[in-house]
Amino acid sequence: RSKSAGRNCFTIYDEAMSAELEARNTLEGDLRDAIARCQLEVHYQPFMDAGTGARRGFEALVRWRHPVRGLIPPDQFIALAEETGLIVPLGEFVLRRACADAASWPSDLMVAVNLSPIQFKEADLFDVICAALHDSGLSPQRLEIEITESVLLERGAENHAFMERLKGIGIELALDDFGTGYSSLSYLTAFPFDKIKIDKSFIRSLTHQPRSSAIISSIVTLARGLDMAVTAEGVETSEEFERLKALGVNFAQGYLFGRPRPIAEIELDGPSSRSQRDAA
Ligand code: C2E
Ligand code: MG
Ligand code: MG
Ligand code: MG
């Protein structure tokens, strides 16, 4: 942007900037409407007990059913929702929807909900969670909350106390995307997690990078010492799954077992189905 670049460059730059800003404003307005008009949907992806192969529960993943653009994945609007504060009503919607849906599933199935660090700054988050449980009738033991490391970096003491409160009523806590952030192992010992979810980037490189095996096996050893379970995210092939089982991973999630699907397409028949138990 030097002077010699001339006036035209400034104009083009400014136009590109304002076009981007305009697109952002449009998206923000649309997202605001989407929340008000219930265009957000919660899809569910199963996670499995690696030892028995049984389905243990589902992770709730938000999608935006845009009237013109179709189904928009969360990577395209969560960051914006966080910047604008819209993540607060969005997150409450997902939490309530997930609890209500899970309340009708067989009672051995858990539901995992992602919470944004921004939601942690809301003074009433605990009340919001309790209300979602109360209104749905879901037992707190069936709710798992997934958070990323960023929650541990900021406001560590407050967030630690908050996590203890959640655990106090029986909610499980999972550390999501482990290995991608500023992971300091000290966080693992300092915070009361029940589960560590190893990021899918490690699973992706598992079959062609011997080092990934070493990393995963270290995480498993560490987690065991801390009395935490380990989930492998993004398991796509049975070869990966076999390797992960051999490495001692407790849970597995990924396209191999099922993609995220709308609630209407979730097949609840199977080993843990209500009808089978009733028949037994
Ligand atoms: P995440 O919580 O780590 O969720 C797992 C992501 O991995 C999901 O992407 C899922 O579709 C994808 N995935 C699962 N199995 C596989 C696999 O085998 N291969 C590959 N390549 N991908 C797999 P999705 O649904 O696009 O969500 C992306 C991220 O958006 C989530 O990552 C989470 O951080 C965020 N997110 C989604 N829903 C919510 C929400 O309700 N609230 C908040 N705060 N964040 C959310
Ligand atoms: Mg997650
Ligand atoms: Mg993850
Ligand atoms: Mg993530």
Describe what you observe in this structure.
Helix 3 packs parallel to helix 5 (125-136). Helix 11 (238-247) links the parallel strand 8 (229-232) and strand 9. By secondary structure, the protein is an alpha/beta fold. It starts with 5 loop residues before the first helix and ends with a helix. 47% of the residues lie in helices and 20% in strands. The chain has helices spanning 6-36, 78-84, 87-103, 117-120, 125-136, 150-153, 156-168, 185-190, 200-204, 210-225, 238-247, 274-279, and strands spanning 40-49, 55-66, 70-72, 110-114, 143-147, 172-178, 195-198, 229-232, 251-253, 261-262. It has an eight-stranded mixed beta barrel with strand order 1-2-4-5-6-7-8-9, surrounded by four helices. The model is unreliable at 271-280 (pLDDT under 50). Ligand C2E binds at residues 45, 61-62, 73-75, 78, 91, 94, 114-116, 146, 176-177, 200, 233-236, 253-255, 260.
Residues in helices, as a percent range: 40-55%
Low-pLDDT sequence parts: 271-280
Structural class: alpha/beta
Find the count of extended strands (DSSP E, 2+ residues): 10
Q: In sequence order, what are the helices and strands, one letter per element?
A: HEEEHHEHHEHHEHEHHEHEEH
Main beta-sheet annotation: 8 strands, mixed, barrel
Q: Which small compounds were modeled alongside the protein?
A: ligand C2E, magnesium ion
Q: Taking Cα atoms only, what radius of gyration do you get, to the nearest Å?
A: 21 Å
Distance between the termini: 74 Å
Domain EAL: 24-274
Organism: Bradyrhizobium guangdongense
Protein name: Histidine kinase
Subcellular location: Membrane
